[in-house]
Amino acid sequence: MDLDQKPDRWAEAFLDYLRIEKDDSPNTILNYKDDIAAFSGFLQKRKADAGWTDVTILDIRSYLAELHRENLARRTIARRISALRSFYRYLLREGKVKLNPFAKVRTPKLEKRLPVFLEEFEINQLLESPDLSTELGRRDRAVLELLYSTGCRVSELAGLTLDRMDLSNRYVLLMGKGRKERIVPLGRPCVKAMTAYLDGTRDALMERYQAKPHSMVFVNSRGTPLTARSVRRILDKYVEQTALTKHISPHTIRHTFATHLLDHGADLRSVQELLGHSSLSTTQIYTHVTAERITAVYRKHHPRA
Questions:
Q1: Is 148 a catalytic residue?
Q2: Catalytic site residue 286?
Q3: Relative to the CA of 124, which of 87, 89, 263, 282 has its CA 20 to 30 Å away?
């Protein structure tokens, strides 16, 4: 087998493409890497010295059979096949292979799962839980308010810089997937929480531990930039403190943001723009949520439902 055909060489080039050209998140790239490595391992056991150009539809069928024997979830199997299809699409574009053997492979049908969201009294309970008499409490209130006020992804919040905030005009410039920018308005409670955090609290945290100057909005207790993982831990803390029983992540707050907008009369296209979805079909899942809520209210309150 030619050196350039080694799976790791082509796979690494693909991962670089995702990182540099597509600007995919580290988690997405790690998933692609794992999915490609899993298939490569299967292929090597099936055919010694096999390369990416040697893959046939029979190999793919055998791989699918093995995944089913391992009792993997449909969603996991679908993700693995999708990753390999994208990988081969890249190889085809680069002229490494003559066809994409995954192009016509059917992925398992997935059940449509409606997003989990919080009721208005639940999100209010969560937002009001941080102790504003402490520095970290003021930071945490600002984190939670920004998540709910903008519906931003946790990566967008963690990557937010000071020059992208305009509190006087109540706007924030978010950097989404594929480095796409979008301007999102800020609610008054969010502006109040952000002002309380930025007027002294952020600088105090940085000065106490002599953290190197940086432009990230949110900092941890030692003044260094707050990570996406730390944001999840902050949320977990207040979910436990408020005894909310739902499984809640930062993305749940994003779902809550979208659902509440639609509940209060926002149109789908505007919600799409605010969320930074490239396709309206991605946003349409929230119409199913609101339709279910309307049906539930009808059945509960109409005397002849």
A1: no
A2: yes
A3: 282
